[in-house]
Amino acid sequence: MLPEDQVALIRDHTVYSCVMGSRAFGLATETSDTDRRGVFLAPTPLFWRFAKPPTHIEGPEPEQFSWELERFCELALRANPNILECLHSPLVERINDTGRELIALRGAFLSLRAHDTFARYALGQRKKLDADVRTHGAPRWKHAMHLLRLLMSCRDLLRTGELVIDVGPARDDLLAVKRGEVSWAEVERRMNTLADEAAAAAAKSPLPADPDTAAVEDFLFRVRHRSAIA
After folding, report:
1. Residues near 51 by Cβ (< 8 Å), separated by ≥ 6?
2. Do residues 125 and 194 lie in contact, with contact meaning Cβ atoms separated by under 8 Å?
3. How many angstroms separate the CA atoms of 71 and 55, rounded?
4. What is the DSSP letter of 71?
5. Distant-in-sequence, close-in-space partners of 130: CB < 8 Å, separation ≥ 6
6. Is the pLDDT of residue 1 over 80?
7. Over the chain, what is the mean pLDDT?
8. Is residue 35 a contact partner of residue 58, using CB atoms and an 8 Å limit?
9. Contact status, residue 12 vs residue 35, Cβ threshold 8 Å
10. Parallel, antiparallel, or unpaired for β 64-68 and 14-20?
11. Alpha-carbon span 194 to 45, nearest angstrom
């Protein structure tokens, strides 16, 4: 059970929360969980104590995870795939004025760094799938589906400069992978093709080389200042 002070941070100071996972990606089925992710703003006076507020909180509801605003922005500036996708969820459940400022700023977090971070994350997941094939003769098909989805998202981000996480028309093909109806050899071929397409897109992407860190810092300063004098 969460300490009451952490429950209060989520209850009283959440600035943005959304649904993620299969429901946000357009891949939900009847058995899909509802994964909730959020951002809370710890009141500025809490940082004046020796014991600082947490950078993240798991709970209080099942499948719920939240980050403190500054930590969230740090990870987004590093092009963390999970954080960037959270900012672009089509299923927003809670948002206030600070959250709307954050969403309005989400383009400032996008940069060519995404190619490296998405690719490294994909490589880690690919190694796990390969290990499953060696050990069990088949991958975890749900994980294979989500890796294909991630690679598609990365490629399209690099091509267009915009991050769209709903898979749209690719839903049926991806769910077929989840059901094990596509051979592992074909899944591997698709993964390799998507990785190659992402690399080609990165060479002529409209994305800037680096995120707009100054704009994000200005936002954080304004938010902390407002909280301090409230």
Report:
1. none
2. no
3. 6
4. H
5. 139
6. yes
7. 96
8. no
9. no
10. unpaired
11. 47
